[in-house]
Amino acid sequence: MRKVWQSDWFGPFAITLLAIVIVGVANPSFLSPFNIQILLLAISVNAMIAFSQMIIIAIGQMNLSVGAIGGLAAISFGGMMEVWGIPWPIAAILALMIGLLAGIANGAFVAFTGISAFVITLASLSVFKGINLGITEAQPFYKVPETVKALGNETFLHPLPWLVIPAVLVAVLLWYMLFRLPLGRNILAVGGNTHAAELSGISVPQIVTVAHAISGFLAALAGIMLVGRLQLGQPTIGDDWLILSFAAPVIGGAILTGGKVSVAGTFLGVAIVAIITQVLVLFNIDPFLVQVVLGGLILWAVGMNRWREVRAERQAVAAGT
Amino acid sequence: MSLMVSPDRADEGAGAARDTGEAPERELGPNAPLRFLLSNEFGLIILIILFAVIFSTLSPAFLSKFSLYALGRNAAVNIMIGFSMMVVIITGGLNLSVGSIGVTSAMFGGWLMQALGVPWVLGLLGGLAMGAALGAINGVIIVRSGLHSFIITLATMSIFFGVMIFLTQAESYREISPTLAGFGRLKILSVLSPLLVTSVVVGIALSVLFRFTALGREMLASGANPHAAELSGIRVERMISYCHMLSGMLAALAGLMLVSRTGAAIPSMAGQLGQDWLLPAFLGPVLGGTLLTGGRVSVLGTLLGAFLVTMLTSGLLLMQVGAFWVQTYLGLLLLAAVLLDLARRSYLAQRKLV
To answer: Best of A72, A127, A234, A286 to disrupt the B interface by mutation (most B CBs within 10 Å)?
Structure first.
């Protein structure tokens, strides 16, 4: 019981439950099937964005190009279907490959030059976004097949939308990989202490590249899901992902220096952000304030994580003396 | 770290002690000129001249009076944005909220002038004070929490911009004092923009600060080695707060320069959350050789770096590569710059020049 209470995901989970109850009582339309469907759609896409950043936070780095990769994959997906007439499943796989390659490029540059991930991904953000704008000239691809539109919006089991399936699948696989497979252990080891990981025989450049590859893949997946959701291949997809991609993992208890992330916590972080956004809409509060709330949530979450760290250190010191 | 502060001292040591054979004596002895030839600043000057020649041969319009004037005016803003990031980079941190602070301060200045009708000097000072205040908020939160500036400024970037958009309802202020708007359109000798003069003057002031004042040196020392600085009696936390405050003020100045250039304060002038400023903000200092780990600064390098970036942008636009592709080239440029810097440093280390 104590273990449950102290786990990373408990705090966000309690807040999520509390928020659902309070908002549900104050405004019953919040719990209507339609609203739940909308909420789940937002959570599904945003969870991919958050996981894409989380895997990089796990190795103690950051990826500024998450949005740019997602946008590039999104317009590639839309463009391949509209201009080349490629069937949507193949176009989706190709777009995912583009994301994977973009991630590998990021990872390889970071791993083999030793330049900070911040600078590399800032440069690649600009390169990927530039390619996106160069191809589309800022015009969206409108001809998205009806199947894709349906998959991006409709439900397979009322009120569960199709998009929930890939989201849950990714969450489970990611959890299994991080906490049950040697690869995940190595990723967390590199994030926890790069030097020690290297000494114990882990190939750090390889792990860094793999983590960035996963990040690129998930960002591309989010981009593709959004094309279905928005029903068009928008070049601006990904422009506003940066803050959210950091907010959700941090709310979920991730430590930015690496080595500690929580899949369930990140998922709940995404849910909290989605609920707050919905509440602002439901109660007719200015949508511009979403940005303020997101920033405030980040500050609150990193403050809480830091406080827990300091307290743990103090307890350790007290136990030692 | 002492390289920029006093190159002469390092010279003497290297010349006397490392004279062991292998490398020819000539290269080791008088290596101050050689080091200048290998410096970022010299490399940037060569690149600026090279690209100026290339662009002017390919497109004669590049050297027209208006083109040069526009180039200087655009460079002025990019230089100021670069300075704003530079003064935080020297502490080993970074400031993602430069764009957000720049726009928020400019909007505040615009509001003062339009809604309250204050004279332009007060509008300008009000904007700068807002920038300094927002920067100080960043600094205090970072120092008090002990967290990295990346995550704090990521959060405040969202908060500042959100509050600004909420208060202004995304409306522009177009009734800017004609004096201020006139300043941005003024031409000195028909080619030089007073905005560029402003940036150069600020650059000189920053050089003086970091080279000749105790405050500037304490800021640098805090970035180079916070622990050692603390032990030698420097109040590192205060210095870091000052750097963030200065960064906010310079970002505000960049925003106000944009207001003066366009004659209006527009909430979208730095893109969503001010993200459009991030690339120019890092390009200038990184090209100019300011170390991202802190402790070393090159004001001239940042100025030249930002100028080169602006020149490449306008040159590429003149050559009609398509406005949309320019961002890709700038990204590749940043990548090339950091790789070149890596190669240069390993070359210097091999030759024992550092």
So the answer is: A127
